[in-house]
Design goal:
about 200 residues, metalloendopeptidase activity, Peptidase_M13_C, Collagenase (Catalytic Domain), 7 helices, Peptidase_M13, mainly alpha, MetalloPept_cat_dom_sf
């Protein structure tokens, strides 16, 4: 983990745990999930090229992965005729989704063990700890790209645009919908969700 991740907005020892888990925890979960995505399945525990999954496991994975391909294929780059390429971005999308899911589980387990939540940041008292977790996650992806940069990204980059690195995983996480009371069937609380792990 590069030292740069141990600075805001990813981490600050004075931040509430919800904020640190939402940002840095999700990045760590993302990287760990790569060991179990379409590329990670090709390497064994020693890092050698060796497909260690059974045929049945691989088939089940592909079926679940197809949901992500279809989900991300539907995302349009604003003000263009371009869409995200769900196949090109599959490994990163699975890692984004797995990372936040595992980090949220770890955060909830931490709170369960210590028996209480942490202090609130100034100006954040109206948000629950769960909401702060998700806001911290989303803040990591704040930024601006030109239209040209967005087009280049969807044509060549294995990472989805920032908007969909936030909305994609959050729409697949029931805990997010519960935390923010999203209406069933809305963009961030859809009828169909994708999950591999």
């Amino acid at each position: 983990l590069p030292a740069g991740f141990l600075t805001p907005p990813f981490f600050n020892r004075y931040y509430p745990k919800a904020a640190n888990y939402g940002a840095l925890g999700t990045v760590m979960g993302h990287e760990l999930t790569h060991g179990f995505d379409d590329d990670g399945s090709l390497y064994d525990m020693n890092g050698n090229l060796n497909n260690w999954w059974s045929k049945e496991s691989y088939k089940n994975f592909r079926n679940k992965a197809q949901c992500f391909i279809e989900q991300y294929d539907s995302y349009k780059v604003p003000n263009t005729d371009f869409k995200v390429n769900g196949k090109l971005t599959l490994g990163e999308n699975i890692a984004d989704n797995g990372g936040i899911k595992q980090s949220f589980r770890a955060y909830k387990k931490y709170i369960e063990q210590i028996g209480h939540s942490a202090h609130k940041l100034p100006g954040m008292s109206k948000f629950t700890d769960e909401q702060i977790f998700f806001l911290s996650f989303a803040q990591v992806w704040c930024g601006h790209q030109t239209k040209e940069a967005q087009i280049k990204q969807v044509l060549t980059n294995e990472h989805s645009p920032a908007k969909y690195r936030v909305n994609g995983p959050l729409s697949n996480l029931p805990e997010f919908s519960q935390a923010f009371n999203c209406s069933f069937g809305s963009l961030l609380n859809p009828q169909k969700r994708c999950s591999v792990w």
